[in-house]
Amino acid sequence: MKHPLYSLAVCTAALTILGGLATASPALAATLRPGTSPKALSVMHVGQIDQQDIASEGGCEPGTLVEPEVAVSPFNPNIQVAAAHDCRFATGGAVDISYAWTHDGGAHWQHAPLPGLTRHSGGVWARASDPAVAFGPDGSVYISSLVFDNGCPTGIAVSKSTDGGATFAPPSLVQQSKTCAYSDDKDWLVVDTQPTSPFYGRIYVFWTAFIPTGSPQVLRFSDNGGKTWSATQMVNPKTTNAQDSQPMIQPDGTLIDTYQDFGGGSAGGGKPIREHPGTTLTGHGAKQSGVAFMARTSFDGGMTWSKASMVTPSVGGGPAAIRCCLPAANVDPVTGKLYAVWEAAGPGTQDPVMLSSSADGRHWSAPVMVTSGDGPSIQHITGAVAAYGGKVYVAYGTLNTKVDQGNHVQQQLSTSTDGGATFGPPITLGPVSNLTYAAVAGGKFPGDYAGASATASRLTLAWCVSSKPANPNRVYHQTLYAAVLRT
């Protein structure tokens, strides 16, 4: 059942607003770097857009939405779609995926559970996870999801909407692993919307294939709107120990995949985390820091891939006791320039957000510090990046480890107007999130990633906010927020 409209005008009015921006709590604001919005950037709407859609069951954490992704239509910026885990399990996955959509540029949002995915919404799977959202060249909206039962079997499903995200058809199954010797994880979805590309309209779904020899990144693609899918293609060798594909498409159809490479399990703290029940979910933190972030390039639509190139040798894991902070990557669809962001791995307690750029996916720039000037107690989580026409936007959460044990997180945005060479001071978005009431999965869990999507006139960010529940008997309360900015 669809939920009523959320009016962001009403949601925003409930916050303390200064110059169109929600201000942080005094305890946190005093420790954040001061900043003002760049002149060309203005906040149109900010507020809650989604909450739990399905009934809590099976031991999930009631009232938790986690790990959002968002996409703005490249053809009509008023149409936007977001998705997130719905009622998170501490052992992995959620009861379902919830999606939210707006057709008026973010002023009002509606939300509903994704139909036909899990058994709780008419599907066949026990749990779902890792939603990714993308628009196709005809305006169709696609959401990919990881689906699984108790550890195995696992699969990757893609749901399609032809009405701008208002409704979704039952999903198409891209991949299914029917034996416990092979399992799937961490899917991501991109669609080629470049008219100059020979692969125009192709839908690519990437994921991590856990097989006896390793955990390589793999993909399948569809050239008919998700009706049928290609055979599995290997991005890297079967012995690779990798995770977290972040694929990008340049205007000529060149396909670049960035991913974390854990090597042989020594440097970087071991093997990639799996999302399935029965596996040990540890917080990224110090145990997962120092992981290499790599890139490979395909010129033939994902069939063959170049040798790996280094983006950075050392991705950090974020603050201790918080599960978060996978690196992220995105492409400027106008210039074709690629951008990757990550939390640095020290030294010490300061972990700034870093950015590297590339014109071809094979040669990456020296890292640029996005969050410069922080004190030693300031840390950042869950960076996201979007770019359009030479402007680069990096969103992240900022916390002070000396305030309430680092539980207060403020969403912020830094902007570059020179293609990622330099970044101005950040602006603050939405209310402070209190991780005391966040989901828990190997640590407090604001999400491994957040969402960012840019067009010529709009930037939309999606992240999760946790706060004290109204019901005193509840432990968790984590909802989905979005900010829509005019660029």
Structure in a nutshell:
It is built from two helices and 34 strands. With 487 residues, the protein is mainly beta. The chain has a five-stranded antiparallel sheet with strand order 1-8-7-6-5. It has a four-stranded antiparallel sheet with strand order 4-34-33-32. Strands 9-10-11-12 form a four-stranded antiparallel sheet, with no helix packed on it.
Can you give a write-up of this model?
- The chain is an all-beta fold.
- It has two helices and 34 strands.
- The longest helix is centred in the first third of the chain and has 6 residues.
- About 9% of the residues have low confidence.
Descriptive tags:
single chain, 487 residues, mainly beta, 5-stranded antiparallel beta sheet, 4-stranded antiparallel beta sheet
Write the layout of secondary structure elements.
Layout: E1 6-7, H1 8-13, E2 17-18, E3 21-22, H2 26-29, E4 42-50, E5 65-72, E6 80-88, E7 94-102, E8 108-113, E9 127-135, E10 141-148, E11 154-161, E12 172-177, E13 183-191, E14 203-210, E15 217-222, E16 233-234, E17 242-249, E18 255-261, E19 291-298, E20 309-315, E21 322-324, E22 328-331, E23 338-343, E24 353-358, E25 368-369, E26 378-388, E27 391-400, E28 408-416, E29 427-434, E30 439-440, E31 444-447, E32 451-454, E33 458-466, E34 478-486
Parallel strand pairs: 21-31
Antiparallel strand pairs: 1-8, 2-3, 4-34, 5-6, 6-7, 7-8, 9-10, 10-11, 11-12, 13-14, 14-15, 15-16, 17-18, 18-19, 19-20, 22-23, 23-24, 24-25, 26-27, 27-28, 28-29, 30-31, 32-33, 33-34
